[in-house]
Amino acid sequence: MHPVRTLLTLTILASTILIYPAAAHAEFRTDTLAARIEALDRETGSGRLGVGLVDLKDGSAWSWRGDERFPMQSVYKLPIALAILTAVDEGRLNLDDTIALGREDLSIQWSPIAREFKGERVTYTVRQLAEHALQLSDNTASDTLLRLAGGPGSVTALLYRHGIAGMRVDRSEREMQPEALGLPPFQPEWANETALAEALNDLPPSVRRAAMVAYLADVRDTTTPKAAAHLLAKLARGELLSEPMTRIFLGILAGTRTGGSRIKAGVPEGSAVAHKTGTAMDVLGTGPAVNDVGIVTLPSGRQIVVAVFVAGSDRPPAERERLIASVTRAAIEALH
In which family does this protein belong, per the annotation (predicted)? Predict the structure, then answer.
């Protein structure tokens, strides 16, 4: 992101992100909320819907399938970024540190860095990699940050230290995506989208379907809706990072460019959303994962954490996204 745009985003966030105490004095109006979410769950067709909500005004929480595990896809870039910003807070990294990437570092499926790569080496700062991973969901940026963070085990251990036991990071994108798609281990040429599409076209449908079924049953790289909402609530309250680093994290999330038809489509005009999406490649008309998790700041200044996961749905992609917007709308209407 351009430095001026970054400064502007952080300035806006500083005026809209409010930190509330964690006392629990009230609850969502669960009578209508539960009925509405149950109806939306039925609209997933072959899939299931997971929801985690936290009202940051009073700490009240509500969930649907809150303790079930859902594949995160790129939502897992949130804890990876948390590990990186923790390292910055602790002086082990600097946001202005430069990282040189070569063709051997390019990752699979979705990566603007790979798409735009020219020459043999390209240099990014840690901040730029975080922006690419969170705002653009860039898999090359994410895999690079995961290595800098010490690997999946280090990220999951950090989550556990913060009391977020329902979320885990187990694989890089290079490891996770081929396995979920039914491909053999990562091949460097798959950093090219055309080559990846050709490799997928060569797979028998039965292989792709079996891989999807296995992926949906896998506990690796999953979260519960409660854990995802808990992570964002702790972030908003300043319980995970220093105040300056919290503002930077929220500022980057406010600039997310993916998922405009998800949480953002369900909030009132004048609201602000700091969020992270996750999307799996469709397999034979089924979406293994369509997700969005974020902090919504309403025009009044009140904040709510919304974490929504749609797993294994055979509904059209636009309908899966509409479900997330509808959950968001229902959650806001259920606030006391």
Answer: Belongs to the class-A beta-lactamase family.
Q: Are 179 and 215 in contact (CB under 8 A)?
A: yes
- Quote the tokens at residue 130: 């975080």
Q: How many domains does the chain have?
A: 1
**61 is written with which tokens?**
């929480």
Distance CA 197, CA 106 (A): 16
Domain boundaries, position 239: 3-333
Q: How do residues 237-277 score in pLDDT, each as one tens digit?
A: 999 999 999 999 999 999 999 999 999 999 999 999 999 99
Catalytic (active site) residue 271: no
Residues β-bridged to residue 278: 291
71's torsion region: left (phi>0), alpha (psi -120 to 50) or beta? Answer: beta
Q: Looking at 60, 63, 74, 271, which residue is catalytic?
A: 74
CA atoms within 13 A on the CB side of 8: 6
**146 phi and psi angles, rounded to 5 deg:** -60, -40
**CA 152 to each of CA 106, 114, 134, 172, 289: distance values in angstroms, whole numbers, following the listed order:** 18, 22, 17, 7, 20
Cβ neighbourhood burial of 95 (10 Å; 0-12, 13-18, 19+): middle
pLDDT band for position 30 (50/70/90)?
Answer: confident
Instruction: Kindly calculate the radius of gyration of the chain based on its CA atoms and give it in whole angstroms.
Output: 19
State the pTM of this model. Answer: 0.91
C-alpha dist (Å) from residue 330 to 16, 38, 136, 324:
22, 11, 27, 10
CB distance 54 to 28 below 8 Å: no
Query: How far, CA to CA in Å, does 166 sit from each of 96, 127, 178, 215, 290?
Result: 32, 27, 24, 18, 19
Strands 121-125 and 61-64: unpaired
Q: Considering the chain, what percentage of its residues have pLDDT values greater than 70?
A: 92
CATH of the domain at 195: 3.40.710.10
